[in-house]
Design goal:
single chain, alpha+beta, Ribosomal Protein S8, Chain: A, domain 1, 2 domains, three-stranded antiparallel sheet, 12 helices, RNA-binding, nucleus, RNA binding, KH_dom, KH_dom_type_1_sf
Length: about 240
């Protein structure tokens, strides 16, 4: 009968001890507590600071494949002129490294100009015509997409040759049809396929090429392209 009060007293004493420990462990000093801070305000940059940040030189090197060295020598005037006149970049051809080097200068106005210039030179290195590659400099919604036939289906020997033949068509008829319908440009370099165009148009051309790789007859692909082109015309209207 006398054990219960002792237990109750012991439990109350342990509670008081725990509260005392909490009071000791928690610092209740109001000066040491973190105070709410206001939003930091930074002064505006001066014109000299802005100019120094934009004048920071940036360099890119775009490797050129061996089979594109001779064409780039012939079209060099048409390559460096848009880069220097439109984008305000500095360009040079490094013959020893077999690459085109571009960098920003004080005439470069847009911060994304060097990326556009790199995409332009890369498109030419992949095999696109200069006039087609210049569209990358003038338009903002053009992209490059590259894939290989083996990424779609593993083919060897004659099967691979027939797949390439289906994509190209007789005298390049199938490739030209896909380009005109999807409003893209396609380069068929052995087993590699490069497509330049907008995101939606690249998807249309890629789906048609994948169907040809998987064995669909060109007539069926033409019918699908006609359906897609009619839908695109209706959306344009």
């Amino acid at each position: 009968m006398q054990l219960e009060p002792l237990l109750i007293a012991g439990s109350t004493q342990s509670k008081h001890d725990a509260q005392g420990d909490d009071e000791l462990a928690i610092d209740v000093d109001p000066e040491s507590a973190p105070q709410p801070q206001s939003v930091p305000s930074f002064p505006a940059l001066s014109a000299a600071a802005v100019q120094s940040s934009t004048l920071k030189s940036e360099t890119r090197r775009i490797p050129i494949p061996p089979h594109r060295i001779t064409p780039i020598k012939k079209d060099w005037v048409n390559i460096f002129s848009p880069l220097t006149e439109i984008l305000g970049l500095q360009v040079r051809m490094n013959v020893h490294r077999r690459c085109v080097e571009i960098r920003t200068s004080r005439h470069t106005k847009d911060i994304g100009s060097i990326q556009k210039g790199a995409d332009f030179v890369k498109a030419y290195a992949l095999g696109f015509d200069v006039n087609d590659a210049i569209a990358l400099l003038r338009l903002d919604d053009l992209y490059l997409d590259s894939f290989e036939i083996k990424d779609v289906k593993t083919l060897h020997g004659d099967h691979l040759s027939r797949a390439i033949g289906r994509i190209a068509g007789q005298d390049g008829k199938t490739k030209f049809t896909i380009e005109n319908t999807s409003r893209t440009r396609i380069v068929l370099a052995d087993t590699k396929i490069h497509i330049m165009g907008s995101f939606q148009n690249i998807k249309i051309a890629r789906d048609a090429i994948v169907s040809l790789i998987l064995g669909s007859p060109p007539g069926k692909v033409y019918a699908g392209l006609r359906t897609v082109s009619s839908r695109m015309k209706q959306r344009a209207l």
